[in-house]
Every structure is written in C-alpha cells, then in structure tokens.
Amino acid sequence: MLIAENLLLSYGAEPETFERGDIIFNENDTPKNYYQITSGRIKLNHYNEEGKELILAILQPGLSVCELLLFINKNTP
After folding, report:
1. Where are its TM segments located (predicted)?
2. pTM, 2 dp
C-alpha cells in the first residue's frame, strides 16, 4: 500500500527523477530514504562472483523500495 503523495509532500518528501541506468543504492548500503515508484520500473539486482547479473525483482509503479530496511537498521541485500 502506497502512502498518498500529498501526505508525503506535506511531511517534506521531495520527488526525485532517475534516468535509465541510474543507481539508487548499492548492495550493502544502509537505506536512508523511502522510495515510492510513481512511474517507470526499478530493477533490483546482484552480481555473483563471476560477474553474472542476477535479477532479484523488477518493481513497478505502485510499489516502494526497501522500506522495511529503514526500520530494522539493516543494509540492502
């Protein structure tokens, strides 16, 4: 369930736009922001020891990214 955009903005959230290929965060980063997808898609991926990309998920509008990690003080997988 998404948080209403007007509510987020009223609490100081700032919309951000990313281009294809932009990195929002890296593996083992500690999340510092809540990201809610309003358009486009986000690919969550991992590279194995041989450098092969493993796609963990493709997130669509209507989803948020790693929000749980903000509350449990864990790094991104």
Report:
1. none
2. 0.75
